[in-house]
Amino acid sequence: MRVACVGGGPAGLFFALLMRRAGDHRVDVFERSAPDATFGFGVVFSRLSLMRLRRTAPEVVTGILDGGARWEQVEVRRGGESLSTSGHGFAAVERREMLAMLRRHAEEAGVGLHYRTEADAASLLDRYDVVVAADGAGSRSRGAFPDGFGARVTPGGSRYAWFASDRVFEDMTFLFEDSPHGPVAAHAYPYSRDRCTFLVEMDGGSWERAGFTDGHTRGADWTDERAMAFASEVFAGHLRGGRLHGNGSRWLRFPQVSAEHWHHKNLVGIGDAVHTAHFSMGSGTTLALEDAAELVRALTAGDVLDVPAALAAYEEVRRPVVAGVQESAWASRRLWEAPEGHRDASLRELTLRLLTRAGQLSVRQMQRLDRDFERTAGSGFTALPGAPVRDLAELDGSLVEVAAPGGGAQDAAVLVERVRALRRARPEAEVGLVVPAPAADGAAVRHLAELVAEVVCRAPVDIVLAAPRPDDTGAGRVAQMVLAEELRLRTGTRTGYACRPQELEHGWTHVQAGRVDEVWTTGA
Ligand SMILES: Cc1cc2nc3c(=O)[nH]c(=O)nc-3n(C[C@H](O)[C@H](O)[C@H](O)COP(=O)(O)OP(=O)(O)OC[C@H]3O[C@@H](n4cnc5c(N)ncnc54)[C@H](O)[C@@H]3O)c2cc1C
To answer: Is the ipTM of this complex over 0.90?
Structure first.
C-alpha cells in the first residue's frame, strides 16, 4: 500500500510508524516545519488514556513517558487560599520530546520523513492509495474539500497563552487571580524535573479591556512579550521568583473543530484535523494517537485492501469515543470561559466544580479515589443527600414541558399561556417548567435557557427543572448538567436537576457544587 501523510505531529508520526510496522507499505510523511520545531510545552495524559495507548505500542509509550512527570494531586488556589485532592493519576511530557521520540521510531521503521515540506493533499490523492490528513486544527487538507468533510470550526470565547515556567509546581495546579482588567486563570503542571506548563487563560471581555494583541496574525516564532510580562506580574506570588518562557506563545482562541465526515475519496482525517477537544481536558493528543492506531487497524484488517470500507470502519469505531470526549471537553471549556459565573462560589464549591466539570465524576467517586477527600477538599460533602428527595410525580398535572429543539412548539407565548392556565386552574399548586436536555451543543443549550428565561419573566414559576432526555441512557448527562447550570444563571428561579434514582449521586454532586439548588428523581 502507498500511503501519504500530511503533517508530522503526534497523529501523523504515530500513524506512519505503526503503518510501517504493520507491513511492507510505502509511507511518506510531509511536515512543513523543521524536525525539532513545534509549538507549546508539556502535554498531559490521564492514567486511563495511557493504559489504552500502551496496548498499541508499549515501548513507544514507555519511552515517551520516561523523561516526563507524574502526579496524583490537583490543587486549586484562589485569593491566598488553596485546596488539594488526590487520586487523579496524570502524566505529562514535553511535546517536543514526544515528537522526537516518535520521529526516531518512525525513522527506524522505515518511514519516508520529508521535513520543511508543505504538502497539498489534493495533489497527492492520485499518487497514493490513501492520503492521511494529520495536519492539525487548521487542516488545509480538510479545507480543500469543504463539502466532503462538512467541517465546523468555532473559535473559543476566551484567549489562552501557552507558556512554560521554571518554577516547578509539583501537581496539576489551577490558579485564579484578579487583574486590573478582570479575572485571569492559569493551569500549571510539571512535565520535567525543572519545567512546568503554565497556560494562562482570560475571558474575552477582560482580554479586550486589556488591549492585548491577537496572536493569529503573527509568525509562528513570535512570542508576545507583553502577554508574558502581564502573566508574570499577575501570578508573581505563585511563581515566587521563577520565570515564564515562551515558544511562539501568544494570545489565541481555541478552535472547536468537528466534521460531518472524516473521509472523502481516499483522503482521511485523523487527530485535530477532524476533531479537537479543549485543552482543559488534556485529551487531544490521546485522541490523535488513538485515531492513528485505529486507522492502521482498519487499513490492514483484511487480506484485500478495500479503502472505502476501511475508512468507513475506522470512522465508525472512533466517532462515538471522540464524541464522548468532545462533549466533556465542551462542558469543561465553559467553566474556563465564564470565570465571572464562579466568582460567588466558595473555594470548596469551585474545587468541586473543577473536579466535576466534565460531568463524569461524583463526590462518591472522589471519596473512593482519595482517602483523605472527606478531611480535605471534600469536607462536608456527602455521596448522597441526607434526606429523601422529591420526585417529579409529585408535580403531576402542574408541570409545563419545554420541548428540546426540534421536539415541538418552542413559542414563548404558548408556554407563557400554559403556565398561566395552570395557575388559574390550580392556584394553590406548585407550578414548574421541566426542560429535557438537548444535544450537547452550546447554541442548543443557550436557545433553551433563553426561551425559559423569557417565559419565567412573563409568567413566573416556582421551580425550573432540567430533566434527562426522554430516550436517556445516561449519555446526555453532560448536556443536562450544562443546561441546569444555564437555567439557574439565566432564570434566577429555584432550579432542580431531575435524574433517574440510580444517577442520584451525580445530581447531588451538582447541588453541592452550587450548580443547582435541588436534586429530584424522575421515578423512572
Ligand atoms: C494550549 C494547548 C494545550 C494542549 N494541551 C494538551 C494536553 O495537555 N494534552 C493533550 O492530550 N492534548 C493537548 N492539546 C491538544 C494537542 O496539542 C492536539 O490535540 C494534538 O497536537 C493533535 O495532534 P495532531 O497531530 O492531530 O495535530 P498537530 O499537533 O497540530 O500536528 C499537525 C502537524 O501538521 C503540520 N502541517 C499542517 N499543515 C501542513 C501542510 N499543509 N503540510 C505539511 N505539514 C503540515 C503542522 O506543522 C503540524 O506539525 C493542547 C492543545 C493546545 C492548543
So the answer is: yes
